[in-house]
Structure formats: structure tokens, C-alpha cells
């Protein structure tokens, strides 16, 4: 999803930012989205993915209890001076309460308690985080702890945080609901959700804020309004106030400045791909699903599309094979990608055709759009 920011459409003070319409998959805005930054507490999104996956697969239950070690208490609890749920030393806490502490209160002690309970140590748990990160498609992120507390090699990208958020929403709807809780009380201490979007009456239901001296104030947020869901991620802001204002402003712009536009219907033939050694030189390509994109109200004329594929494509091919990608651009910004399938079955060609294609490949290579 690498693409450049469209400064003519929107300007933000954030150094890195990305806005996605979940329903269509349209990238409405992006700026330095693949640049690696310290995650701070946004690393807790990955911690929760590991937990939610264990719950979904039955390896854990919400009633399982986790022991509060001295390391968890001292490193992330009351003595640490960091975000904490004030877990009591040597007590045992049900997993559901730890989840709420981590999500609502950004509890570092809650993260370490979970990490030690699941993997024996936080370092081993970080290995689980990295394994899951690769499995769900995170490309620029590496984790060394469950909390996001400073580590020189711990990095994420805004693009990965959006990918992770979409995964959490899609795969764990029963657990994603915790991100919309406005407050949580543990050990008789009531704390409000640190996400400023939750209290803005704009349909926000998640997710997380973070801060480091190195990268400034950051946020990953999600809103659902009038049947549409938007996800925003941004970093490099100078204050809590600026973070709240910029994230709300970008989300509201995303709701108001775009309209849906159907490019192609399901199974519509949109182009062709060159075949190697086939009965025909090309195979037609069709859409897998209807391709609908959100386009700016004032920039529809800048809409264009391009087909890409890895060639040469060897014959035979069967109808319905996914062999290409439709890339849709608004100006120079990659706004959406959709898979393309073969629209026909093509058998191998005669021997002379295969030999001719081999000679052509050696002589000039393959040209792919």
C-alpha cells in the first residue's frame, strides 16, 4: 500500500499518517506510512492480537487467572511511574480484567503479567508477537516487549498499524468491543479511556494512543458513522491536544470529502495478461468482486487504473485463477488494490508456439503493464 501523500487534498501536522475506508478498502490519505517509528503504547495492539488469537483458538479463556510477579509489579506497576492498572503484588487476576486494564488504562503491568503468564517471560512473548506479526502481513514492525516501553530496536510503521487494526476488527469482533469502553476500575482506582476520540460523539470505538520523545504523540483510531467505518493512524504530533484535533479533523474530512464510485462490476472483464506457451497469446482478466472506490468530490477526473502481474504466465491456466492485481490511483496516490482472475481456461499451445514464446522471452523479455 505504499503511496505518497496528496497534499492538494488534505494537509496534516502529523509526520506519518494514513486514513482508510474499511468498507471499500480505499486509502483516502497516506504520508510516510512505511517509515519505521518507535511504537510506544501502540505496541499493545500487537500484544492484544496474541491474546485474542489464543482466546479464539481455545488456548485461553477469559476466566484464566494470571499471577502478578515482582517483575511485572516493579517494571509496569505502581513503582514504575508509567501507565498502570495498579495490580497488587503476588495477587492473581482474571484475563478479562487484564485485557480491560491494558486496553482502557494502557496498563504496562497488565501487559507484563499476560506475557509472563502466556510465555514464561516477556522476551519469549515478544517472539510470539513477531511470529503473529509476520503471519498477518506486517512488513515493517519488530517487537521486543509487550508494553511498548522504550527499546532501541523496537519499530512499527503506520501502514502496519492500520493492517493490524483491520485484522483485529475483522477476526476478533467479540473482543474488539473492549476498545470502546469509556472507563475501567481496578484495585478501587477508576481510570478513563486514554483515547480522546471515544468522548467526541463521532462514533469512535477504538483504539489506542502512544507517546515517545523520539516520535512524538501518536494515535490509532476507528469510527463508525452512517454505515461507514474509517481507520486513522498518525504519529509525530507535538501535543495531546494536537493529536486529538488532527485525528478528528482527518476522520471528519474522510467522511465528508468523498463519494462512492463503482469502477467495475463482479466478473467484469477489465484487461488481459500475456501467456507463455499457450493456445492463445493472452488470457482475459476479470474482477473477483465489484470494485467500488471512494473518490474525492473535486478530483474524480484524476482516477486511473493499472493492471500488474508477475510474468511470464505459464500455460495452461484455468478459469478463476488469481494471477493479477488491479491498482487504482487517484492522481499519483495508490488508493486501492483488487485481485484479478482469469476469465477463461487456456490450454497449452502446440510445440512450435511454445518454442517461439521461449525464443521471444530470451530475446526481449516480457513487458507487463
TrEMBL record:
InterPro entries: Beta-lactam/transpept-like, Peniciliin-bd_prot_C_sf, Peptidase_S11, Peptidase_S11_C, Peptidase_S11_C_sf, Peptidase_S11_N. It catalyses: Preferential cleavage: (Ac)2-L-Lys-D-Ala-|-D-Ala. Also transpeptidation of peptidyl-alanyl moieties that are N-acyl substituents of D-alanine. Substrate binds at residue 208. The keyword Cell wall biogenesis/degradation applies. The keyword Signal applies. Its EC number is 3.4.16.4. Keywords: Carboxypeptidase, Cell shape, Cell wall biogenesis/degradation, Hydrolase, Peptidoglycan synthesis, Protease, Signal. Residues 258-348 form the Peptidase S11 D-Ala-D-Ala carboxypeptidase A C-terminal domain. One of its GO terms (biological process) is regulation of cell shape. Pfam families: PBP5_C, Peptidase_S11. Pathway: Cell wall biogenesis; peptidoglycan biosynthesis. The active site is at 41 (acyl-ester intermediate), 44 (proton acceptor), 106. GO terms for molecular function: serine-type D-Ala-D-Ala carboxypeptidase activity. Removes C-terminal D-alanyl residues from sugar-peptide cell wall precursors. PANTHER family: D-ALANYL-D-ALANINE CARBOXYPEPTIDASE, TRAFFICKING PROTEIN PARTICLE COMPLEX SUBUNIT 12. Belongs to the peptidase S11 family. This is serine-type D-Ala-D-Ala carboxypeptidase.
Amino acid at each position: 500500500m505504499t503511496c505518497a501523500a496528496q497534499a492538494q487534498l488534505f494537509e496534516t501536522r502529523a509526520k506519518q499518517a494514513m486514513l482508510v475506508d474499511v468498507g471499500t478498502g480505499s486509502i483516502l490519505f497516506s504520508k510516510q506510512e512505511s517509515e519505521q517509528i518507535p511504537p510506544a503504547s501502540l505496541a499493545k495492539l500487537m500484544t492484544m492480537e496474541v491474546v485474542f488469537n489464543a482466546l479464539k483458538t481455545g488456548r485461553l479463556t477469559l476466566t484464566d487467572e494470571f499471577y502478578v510477579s515482582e517483575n511485572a509489579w516493579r517494571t509496569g506497576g505502581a513503582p514504575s511511574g508509567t501507565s498502570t492498572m495498579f495490580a497488587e503484588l503476588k495477587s492473581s487476576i482474571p484475563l478479562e480484567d487484564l485485557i480491560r486494564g491494558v486496553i482502557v488504562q494502557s496498563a504496562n503491568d497488565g501487559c507484563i503479567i499476560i506475557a509472563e503468564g502466556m510465555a514464561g517471560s516477556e522476551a519469549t512473548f515478544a517472539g510470539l508477537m513477531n511470529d503473529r506479526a509476520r503471519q498477518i502481513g506486517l512488513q515493517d514492525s519488530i517487537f521486543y516487549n509487550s508494553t511498548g516501553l522504550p527499546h532501541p530496536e523496537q519499530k512499527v510503521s503506520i501502514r502496519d498499524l492500520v493492517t493490524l487494526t483491520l485484522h483485529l476488527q475483522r477476526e476478533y469482533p467479540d473482543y474488539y468491543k473492549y476498545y470502546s469502553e469509556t472507563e475501567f476500575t481496578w484495585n478501587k482506582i477508576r481510570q478513563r479511556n486514554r483515547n480522546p476520540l471515544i468522548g467526541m460523539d463521532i462514533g469512535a470505538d477504538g483504539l489506542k494512543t502512544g507517546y515517545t520523545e523520539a516520535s512524538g504523540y501518536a494515535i490509532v483510531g476507528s469510527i463508525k458513522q452512517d454505515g461507514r467505518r474509517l481507520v486513522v493512524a498518525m504519529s509525530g504530533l507535538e501535543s495531546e491536544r494536537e493529536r486529538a484535533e488532527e485525528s478528528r479533523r482527518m476522520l471528519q474530512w474522510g467522511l465528508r470529502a468523498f463519494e462512492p464510485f463503482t469502477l467495475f462490476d463482479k466478473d467484469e472483464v477489465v484487461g488481459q495478461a500475456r501467456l507463455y506457451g499457450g493456445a492463445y497469446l493472452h488470457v482475459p482478466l476479470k474482477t473477483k468482486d465489484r470494485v467500488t472506490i471512494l473518490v474525492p468530490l473535486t478530483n474524480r477526473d484524476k482516477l486511473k487504473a493499472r493492471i500488474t502481474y508477475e510474468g511470464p504466465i505459464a500455460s495452461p491456466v484455468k478459469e478463476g485463477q488469481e494471477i493479477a492485481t488491479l491498482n487504482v490511483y487517484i492522481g499519483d496516490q495508490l488508493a486501492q488494490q483488487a485481485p484479478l482472475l482469469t476469465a477463461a481456461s487456456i490450454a497449452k499451445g502446440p510445440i512450435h508456439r511454445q518454442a517461439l514464446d521461449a525464443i521471444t522471452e530470451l530475446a526481449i523479455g516480457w513487458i507487463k503493464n
